[in-house]
Design goal:
CATH superfamily of the largest domain in chain B: Periplasmic binding protein-like II
CATH superfamily of chain A: MetI-like
Distance between the termini of chain A: 12 Å
Oligomer: heterodimer
Helix content of chain A: over 70%
Helix content of chain B: 40-55%
CATH architecture of the largest domain in chain B: 3-Layer(aba) Sandwich
Order of helices and strands of chain B: HEHEHEHEEHHEHEHEEHHH
Number of helices of chain B: 11
Number of domains of chain A: 1
Order of helices and strands of chain A: HHHHHHHHHHHHH
Largest sheet of chain A: none
Largest interface: A-B, 25 and 30 residues
CATH topology of chain A: MetI-like fold
Shape of chain B: elongated
Radius of gyration of chain A: 22 Å
CATH topology of the largest domain in chain B: D-Maltodextrin-Binding Protein, domain 2
CATH class of the largest domain in chain B: Alpha Beta
Distance between the termini of chain B: 76 Å
Number of domains of chain B: 2
CATH class of chain A: Mainly Alpha
Number of strands of chain B: 9
Radius of gyration of chain B: 23 Å
Mean pLDDT of chain A: 84
Structural class of chain A: mainly alpha
Chain lengths: 294, 310
Amino acid sequence: MNNPKDLSGRPPVGTPVAQSLSASSARASRADIPALRGPQTLWWGMALPLLFFLVLPLAALLWRTDMAQLWVHLADPAAAQAIRLSLQTTTTTVLLTVLFGTPVAYLLARRDFPLRRVVDTLIDLPTVLPPAVAGLGLLMAFGRRGWLGAPLELLGIEIAFTSVAVVLAQLFIASPFYVRAAAGGFAGIESELEQAASLDGASRWQIFRFITLPLVRMTLLGGLVMSWARALGDFGATIIFAGNFPGRTQTMPLAIYLGFEMDLDVALALSVILIACAFVVLMAVKWLLAGERE
Amino acid sequence: MKYLIVTGFLFTLLLTVGGCISSRGDSTADEKPQEVVVFAAASLTEVLTEAGKTFEQDHPDVRLVFNFAGSQQLASQLAQGAQADLFASADQRQMDAAVTAGRIDPADVTIFACNRLVVVTSDSRIDSLQALARPGVKLVIGAQAVPVGVYTQALLAAASADPLYGPAFGAGVMANVVSYEQSVRAVLGKVRLGEADAGIVYASDARAAPDVHVLEIPDSLNQIASYPLASVLDGPLEEDSSTALARQFIDFLHSSRSRDILTGAGFSVECAPALEAPASDAPTSDAPTSDAPTAKASISKAPTSKASTP
């Protein structure tokens, strides 16, 4: 390994971003082996149908959208409101995810505790559940007659139909992506490195801050981007738990869904923005991380 | 390049084989009941399922396949070329959209059922329509894109024009709206869960939910939602065997047996012209006028004596 950053000698695991990075190093090393160079046409022939299938709907969407009218539609107050709300809520979700998700990931990766495997599985559940199930569960817990919702309402705190509900829905759906990635990152660090720092007199916090964190930085960032993208795209949990009110709970996916029925052009414009946002951010992170690895 | 050609060939082969298998499935369909695909408004879910079962008992050669969703969604799907034989919309606007898309012959459209709005509440303190404008009431209504949302707006406009409610009524109610839901069932769900204090839904939906309080809306303000029905064209004036079967189901939905099922579920039928009933329904058929007063009868907390046809 000629990569000074990757001291553990293991590729980072857990997120598509990290995975694509380890794939790129695999790609580079394999090109040197003559037996694996051969003609690629068969692989291309087999790969093209799926690539075509994945790209086609996006291309059709872009082609159908009148780019000249795009800005006009985005200036539409409902569309602008939805974009603003989506940015505000996903930013909050991502901050909460880092704040509360990092300790969970650290514990899962580093400490053995009873039912660790169960907790580990529970963390994965929201990522495979239909978002509508998540929405219903949140209603039962945080709704006005829910376990926590009812006592909170007595205290004068209302969650239903507010932007707080949107953030909770996003947090439930999206934070496991970050926790999963971060746990993979923490688990990949060789404990000898931290022990060495400890022998040199570093405090626990210093070890975490100057050894552990720099080593997993890329993995954390990758996980964070994934959970942000997931939060941005959530529809089911949001509409069931938070409802649909412009400026308060109507995020971009909700505006697209109801826009599809009201005004297809506005819905298309918002869709293009969502695709562009997701593409630019995913791409930027890949470049950033690839640059760091060089 | 050789590989590409081989792969291309393999793919073609795969597709052909797949095609053969599926077309073989079609050829054996003679013995199986023929499918009639029905696109119907979400508010018709229970009643059409029940009516469909009755119809299938009489027609063992037909199997009805339902796709229940918001009318606006169904109309969009039809416009995009979705395969269907029948479309039952919750309002004329979405039926018109399907007509504009060339999937429906406007001459074929008939009204087969009607519905009216009621207020459902999870809070018994909301005891009048006026109470909806009280500050602090959490109200959910249908979004503008959904038929029930359009009827709700029309209702509020009518009430605001009524001196009994006053011009501020509509604005007061709208200020209490906390969510514009994407279907009438979503509105009902939020009220049943107690998330919202009140919602505006169809009488038939309220009938299906015994755990909510139902407030009647005066006839003078109420909006009558009519359900247009038509067979769907596969192309410009193109018909096949399933279209004929779809026609049979349309006739059945206008028959007195179907009307009993509809009124039993909280719909009214006085707005729908009675077509001549098929022979099998002859014994119980009665004039639509005799249905009218009972169907108009109020549907309040206790589903009042539905003394329609015996």
